[in-house]
Amino acid sequence: MHIARQEVSERSVVFCFHSCLSVFVEFGCLAPSGGHSALLTLISRKVVRTSKFRHVFGQAVKADQCYDDIRISQMTWDSNFCSVNPKFVAMIVDASGGGAFIVLPLSKTGRIDMSLPTVCGHTGPVLDIEFCPHNDNIIASCSEDCSVMIWEIPDGGLISPLKDPVVKLDGHSKRVGILSWHPTAHNVLMSAGCDNVVILWNVVHGEAVVRIDSMHTDLIYSACWNRNGSQILTSCKDKKLRVIDPRKGSVICEKDKPHEGSRPVRAVFVSDGKILTTGFSRMSERQVALWDPNNFSEPLTLQELDTSSGVLLPFFDPDTGVVYLCGKGDSSIRYFEVTDEAPYVHYLSMYSSKESQKGMGYMPKRGLEVNKCEIARFYKLHERKCEPIVMTVPRKSDLFQEDLYPDTIGPEPSVEADDWFAGKNGEPILISLKDGFVATTKNKEFKVIKSLMATTSSSSSNRQSDSVVREQRESSALQNEVKELREMVEQLTKRVSDLESN
């Protein structure tokens, strides 16, 4: 409301100025020339900021394009509870006797059968899930059972319950609540648990390569990578914001109390290495702030939003510079544009609906319909359904809008896990969406990395090689046994013939 009133007041200033100029012209105090119009235009530009995203609007899809009759998890953990890519949408659901989540092909809309197979290998409730950015068939999950598991989903979705993961990663001593795949390195996964430990896994070998266990003194609220994965950003219950060198496990810089309130803080990297945080004031007002890590003393901007109690989950789009704030328990999505001009974080608009959200999934840019000027798509979780929400820039032309869709991050990794842990960084490999938006779900369109089963699971490959060796040994043993039996039969036959002759 505060930001909305600010916009109304800005427009009022322009309107009043225009009225005053008209009065001056009427009474002869100002010549009726185009000078005052130019002046008005100049001041209008200063007061009302121009932006191609000012008129972005959100719209829910039709009822038949939603996913209905899904028992969304009742856990109170502050994670997204949903992950989505151009092939699948995954949601954490209620399950008896353990934890489970469902994975649906995007096209499988409508009412979901209660008997639909789930991924149900965890023995405790699932707290977070995330699809691999380099392989749309691979998804990671973490749970209260202290484990992280990697799963492979068949192209058409599940046809039977999936209980055995491709890789199981054990290393946390308490429940694991945060997962994040490396943006550019293949098969590098970060996890953070309630044991205040951050672990970087090499999924190829199924082992923990880096363990950051003495830095955070309390519960970790959020953890994310920067654009090329050379830094990690964490927010913690000890009221500190930390930028970490992930391979050395050392703090590059930190900020104490980015927000004065005691409720959870979320933080993400935005453009030019800056950091956007959401948190609470001492009076429990929700805030959004922008920080420069090179000067953590004061925020570049700090804005108060409202007095709601839900934690704001930020989703940043590096292509457009737009950040979306989705509050758990809210019924709205606010969106802002992050620029280099003060006040740096500019309010754009807000999508509102009647029902509150229990979680939110965010579609990668390569999964959007660019011919409809769609710049973002969210998958909003209700009590019993998942509802896609489309963010669109209104344009009259049906042609490809190059200014809305610069080259974006593709699914091809730029560095392998072993090389990254050895110190090599890789910038994101960008792709153009101009010709690829028609068939975004086809592997060949985006050169998706081959199945993790074939390249990243050392345990499975060992099992395969062991089984081959075992089969060879069994075959050899059988051949020897048959040979011995033949010799025995020959001996008995000879003995019988000798006895008959006698």
UniProtKB/TrEMBL annotation:
Gene: LOC107674167
Bias kind Low complexity: ranges: 457-467
A GO term for molecular function: actin filament binding
Protein name: Coronin
GO biological process, one term: actin filament organization
One Pfam entry name: DUF1899
Keywords from the UniProt entry: Coiled coil, Repeat, WD repeat
Membrane-crossing residue ranges in chain numbering: none
Domain of life: Eukaryota
Intervals holding WD repeats: 119-161, 169-211
Family membership noted in the UniProt record: Belongs to the WD repeat coronin family.
PROSITE patterns: WD_REPEATS_1, WD_REPEATS_2, WD_REPEATS_REGION
